[in-house]
Amino acid sequence: MSAAPKVTALRGGDVSLAAAADAFLATPRTANPNTHRAYASAIDRVTTLLGRDRPLTEVTDTEIGSALTELWGRCAPATWNRNRAAVTSWLTWCQTKKHNGSGDAERRNENADEIRAVAKTTIQRLLSRRDIPLRERTLWRMLYEKAARAAEILALNVEDLDLDE
């Protein structure tokens, strides 16, 4: 097994955006191939937009925020947050290496998905109740077992049902 490559800390104020990005992407924090691919994609797009040969110390927070907005401002909040997090992680790493840039872009709120499947035990309890009409119990069973939309089930004709099954 070969030894992991050593990453030397970036020094000096004339480090380009490309060099800073390459050094960050070589760190163990991006060793996972999926993380590396996602971070590299976001960081490469930002550095290309800002100028890969520009010194990192010349890039302002406002420019970072503008670049993020230009690249992902119209995207879904999850996309914005994912790319913002990658760029922010890179810039935070650069700061610990005595470089400038933190990004002037706030995290956006995501809409939480409140739709949850009903537990099978709950459905079974409902289906075993005798006080609920057969029609409703059949509807609930079909909705649950077929994962169909209510409109699809309600559009069925009784003749379409396979009563033997």
| Largest sheet, strands/sense/barrel | none
What does the radius of gyration come to?
27 Å
How confident overall, as mean pLDDT?
81
| Large-scale geometry | rod-shaped
Describe the structure in your own words.
This protein has 165 residues and is mostly helical. The protein folds into two domains: 17-96; 120-159, no CATH class. The chain is built from seven helices and no strands. Helix 1 runs antiparallel to helix 2 (33-50), helix 2 packs across helix 4 and helix 5 (120-128) runs antiparallel to helix 6 (134-146). The relative contact order is 0.10. Mean pLDDT is 81; it is low at 1-12 and 100-106.
Task: Break the fold down into its secondary structure elements and pairings.
Layout: H1 17-25, H2 33-50, H3 61-72, H4 77-96, H5 120-128, H6 134-146, H7 150-154
Helix pairs in contact: 1-2, 2-3, 2-4, 5-6
Quick description:
With 165 residues, the protein is mostly helical. Helices cover 52% and strands 0% of the residues. It folds into two domains: 17-96; 120-159, no CATH class.
Keywords:
single chain; 165 residues; disordered N terminus; mainly alpha
